[in-house]
Automatic annotation (TrEMBL):
It comes from the Bacteria. In the C-terminal section; belongs to the transpeptidase family. In the N-terminal section; belongs to the glycosyltransferase 51 family. One of its GO terms (molecular function) is penicillin binding. It is found in: Cell membrane. This is Penicillin-binding protein 2D. The lineage of its organism: Bacteria, Bacillati, Bacillota, Bacilli, Bacillales. It comes from Pontibacillus marinus BH030004 = DSM 16465. The chain crosses the membrane at residues 20-44.
Length: 689
């Protein structure tokens, strides 16, 4: 007969084998959860730093380029997103997002039961918070260690950030395929639209992609994407987020994908962008990858219309099959802002920037620096020197004999006004030797030439190697009345939130050359287009003079391997170099003409219908008409009369008597007016040489 155990013994057994373990387990669970929460609290708020695309803007704040590292990202607020897209994502990824604390227990249990029935893992239960944590901090490897870390980060996100912040972060970091991260990048890539411009149909299609960016890409697998889009629309309808009418319209709306995805768009001014990148690195001390993915907004000096004009002019003037290269730069002479630039004919083929990195002999474009030095040392536009073959004995005992183009000489005195317009080499070397070769070096350095310059007679003819950027900057000093010029491409840099990291300081410019002499030189440089100065040769700009509708100052230069044209208006300075990368001689006449033709067409194009602006004489300068041959004051008998400017007190006093017939009343009047003057600079130089 069985003996009944006391009731209290049953209680002891139950407590021992069931109650105590259960309480212990619950206690351990509570302790674990509390410890986890305390640990997460001690760790503090996790950083929400993320990669973003860096955007380049032109001077008129048009988007000219977008840079990113390996990932294409933008960051926008929830307010900037199409509301239906947000609802489509919530209905698809995490319907209980606003009700859980990072983990959806109900969804986890349902997924586990579903997986058990299917005997495999077929349904995920990750919340938006968990996915955001994974996107921010973790890899996508499927290990328990990664899952634990994901859980900790998810708890920390929910603990320290509100739901809107988490949702905004998720929608800006989720991957949509083809290198696009976040809804804005995806919207631009797939539809060439901003995220707030999407239709309901497009929004549902994008919401379909993250589940499997390759499998649901509408470019790669349109049918898969379309089926999932319709499922999402149906779920939104069941959830009361859209009406019957909206559902029907969205399902029937044709999907119009971008025919040329945005990331394959050709960048504007790629050589210029490289220069911007280098300048940005110096200004904010970041490396290239940090800049590209830092979400910066970089406001540049580029004038897109001028850039397009420069590129188009180059294409139209240089033969497509020619191997000749080009370096070109256009600048605001008052500020040094680079307005347009081309560093070569094909960036994809060669990113080497010939406007900045290449150094070539500038030829006669170097002469304006010499003639400024001459003006500082007593020359005037009327100073005459003999133009004939001349030998110069150098310090080492060798002999140097410069020659003019095609061996042409005047065999008589010519004025400085003619010498610069005709590009007389003998006049230039005589002047360089008379001033002392160090004078030209010092003057060029003062104007901004930084390259090494040998103090030799031939430097007057541009035998040193310099860059297009240096020459354009130095010419800008002449154009702006003698103030220093520092070329730059970046006006301002801000971070993704608009905080200014750098802004160009437009401080008062240092005066490096005399403004009166700068104007006198500027007017002398207009002579290359003035055919009244034709003499034993035509002026060097005669081939393009008839194409110009306004007054420009400039100088061309030619060596065996290089062809240059540099010039300016009061608003724009532009330099063009053409030649071969391997210093191959330029043999075709047409190829020597490229630089001038491109310069003339570009300058005319960028000024367009703008109001005419003349070079304004500075105080202390006076203009008189001279005979360009003799350099004396012109009379009615002179066939050519040229307006020339002089620093007050240095203008000619004698009248020209070359063209007046002997014995006429006019000749006698001029004889009476002309006074006997002491020996002039011309007499001294002719005696020396």
């Amino acid at each position: 007969m069985e003996q009944n155990l006391p009731r209290r013994n049953y209680k002891k057994i139950f407590w021992k084998w069931f109650g105590l373990p259960t309480v212990t387990l619950i206690g351990l669970l509570v302790l674990s959860v509390s410890s986890l929460l305390l640990y997460c609290y001690i760790l503090g708020a996790p950083s929400l730093q993320h990669q973003e695309n860096t955007v380049f803007y032109s001077h008129s704040q048009e988007v000219m380029a977008v840079e990113h590292g390996l990932e294409n990202r933008y960051w926008i607020s929830l307010d900037e997103m199409f509301p239906a897209f947000i609802q489509a994502t919530l209905q698809t990824e995490d319907r209980r997002f606003y009700k859980h604390f990072g983990f959806d227990i109900k969804r986890i249990v349902a997924a586990a039961l579903h997986d058990i029935r299917a005997m495999s893992k077929v349904q995920g239960a990750s919340t938006i918070t968990q996915q955001y944590a994974r996107n921010l901090y973790l890899s996508h490897e499927k290990t328990w260690a990664r899952k634990v870390k994901e859980a900790i980060y998810a708890v920390r996100l929910e603990m320290f950030y509100d739901k809107e912040k988490i949702l905004e972060g998720y929608l800006n970091t989720i991957y949509y395929g083809h290198g696009a991260y976040g809804i804005e990048a995806a919207s631009r890539y797939y539809f060439h639209k901003n995220a707030d411009e999407l239709t309901l149909s497009e929004a549902a299609l994008l919401a379909a992609v993250p589940k499997g960016p390759s499998y649901y890409s509408p470019y790669s697998h349109f049918d898969n994407a379309k089926r999932r889009q319709e499922l999402i629309l149906s779920n939104m309808h069941k959830g009361g987020k859209i009406s019957d009418k909206e559902l029907l319209k969205a399902k029937q709306e044709p999907i119009k994908l971008a025919t040329n995805p945005s990331r394959s768009k050709k960048n504007i001014a790629p050589y210029f962008q490289d220069l911007v990148m280098k300048e940005t690195m110096k200004k904010i001390n970041m490396d290239t990858e940090e800049i590209k993915s830092g979400g910066l907004h970089i406001y540049t000096t580029l004038d897109i219309s001028k850039q397009h004009k420069l590129e188009r002019t180059i294409r139209e003037n240089m033969e497509e099959d020619s191997e000749m290269q080009i370096g070109a730069m256009s600048m605001n002479p008052k500020t040094g802002a680079v307005l347009s630039m081309v560093g070569g004919r094909d960036y994809e083929e060669s990113p080497f920037n010939r406007a900045v990195q290449a150094k070539r002999m500038p030829g006669s474009t170097f002469k304006p620096f010499l003639y400024y030095a001459a003006l500082e040392n007593g020359y005037t536009p009327a100073t005459t020197l003999m133009s004939r073959p001349t030998y110069f004995e150098l310090e080492d005992g060798s002999v140097y004999e410069p020659s003019n183009y095609n061996g042409y000489y005047a065999y008589e005195p010519i004025t400085l006004a003619q010498a610069i317009a005709l590009s007389d080499n003998v006049y230039a070397v005589k002047t360089n030797v008379f001033l002392g070769e160090e004078t030209l070096v010092e003057t060029a350095k003062r104007m901004g030439i930084e390259s090494s310059l040998p103090a030799v007679p031939s430097l007057a003819l541009g035998t040193a190697s310099v860059s297009v950027e240096e020459m354009v900057s130095a010419y800008s000093v002449i154009a702006n009345g003698g103030k220093e010029v520092e070329p730059y491409t970046v006006e301002k840099i801000t971070d993704a939130h608009g905080h200014v990291l750098y802004e160009k300081e437009h401080k008062k410019k240092k005066q490096v050359i005399d403004p009166s002499l700068a104007f006198v030189l500027t007017h002398l440089m207009t002579g290359m287009f003035d055919q009244s100065l034709n003499d034993y040769m035509r002026v060097t700009g005669s081939s393009i003079a008839n194409d110009l509708t306004r007054t420009y100052a400039g100088k061309s230069g030619t060596t065996r391997t290089d062809s240059w044209m540099i010039g300016f208006s009061p608003k724009v300075t532009t330099g063009i170099w053409t030649g071969y990368d391997q210093n191959k001689p330029i043999e075709k006449t047409k190829e020597h003409q490229y630089a001038k033709d491109i310069w003339a067409e570009y300058m005319e194009g960028v000024h367009g219908k703008q109001a005419f602006e003349a070079f304004k004489p500075s105080d202390g300068v006076t203009g008189v008409y001279i005979d360009p041959n003799s350099g004396h004051l012109a009379t009615p008998y002179c066939p050519n009369q040229r307006l020339a400017y002089f620093v007050e007190g240095t203008e000619p006093e004698q009248y020209c008597d070359v063209h007046i017939p002997d014995g006429t009343e006019g000749y006698e009047n001029v004889e009476k007016k002309n006074k006997k003057n002491p020996k002039s600079m011309s007499d001294v130089l002719d005696w020396l040489f």
